[in-house]
Amino acid sequence: MPLKVGEKAPDFTLLDTDLKPVRLYDVLSKGRNVVLLFFPGAFTSVCTKELCTFRDNMAKLNKANAEVIAVSVDSPFSLKEFKEKNSLGFTLLSDFNRTVIAKYDVVLPNLLGLELFYLAKRAVYIIGPDGTIKYVWYSDDPRNEPPYDEVISAAGGS
Predict the structure, then answer these.
(1) CA 133 distance to own-chain centroid
(2) What is the pLDDT of residue 110?
(3) High-pLDDT (> 90) share of the chain, %
(4) What is the pLDDT of residue 79?
(5) Of 13, 37, 49, 96, which sits with the fewest C-beta atoms within 10 Å of its C-beta?
(6) Across-strand partners of 67?
(7) Does 47 qualify as catalytic in the annotation?
């Protein structure tokens, strides 16, 4: 079961698309909400649509003082290409060791019957500057997209 509203978000450090470590609590220390997206895989149709939808709503999220961070198990190199190809103006992090998807309990096991092929479930956490989880949405079905308007509203946008 994924983490719940009111719980403390587990801290982590992952590499971004420039191979620089990014620590969640360092981002939170800026005083902004973090919209933490977990997605199964770069260059897949639903993930591309999801991240491009967040890209297209960045003005609302910026106005809400929210920062978007997206996490998948793809390599930093794949994520860099994905970010550039789709003009994504937010941070993409690589959980290639699959430690953070385990901490957040969003492991999608055996995708398409491929044993030991673990990806991230599609999930959204909104985390306040104090590290407390303010919103949670996740799906066991990777074809489901998050409720974008609800997420933006929960982040403080309109």
Answers:
(1) 13
(2) 66
(3) 60
(4) 96
(5) 49
(6) 34
(7) yes
CA distances from 45 to 64, 94, 132 (A): 28, 19, 31
Instruction: Give mean pLDDT, residues 75-87.
Output: 96
What CA–CA distance (Å, rounded) separates 119 from 9?
20
Q: How many alpha carbons lie under 13 Å from residue 50 in its C-beta half-sphere?
A: 28
Taking phi over 0 as left and psi of -120 to 50 as alpha, with beta for the rest, 3 belongs to beta
Can you tell me the distance from the alpha carbon of 123 to that of 39, in angstroms, rounded to the nearest whole number?
7
Helices marked H in the chain: 24-28, 45-56, 58-63, 76-85, 99-103, 148-154
Candidate list 9, 36, 47, 70, residue with the active-site label: 47
- How far lies 21's CA from each of 56, 57, 108, 150, in Å? 26, 26, 24, 30
3-state secondary structure of 156: coil
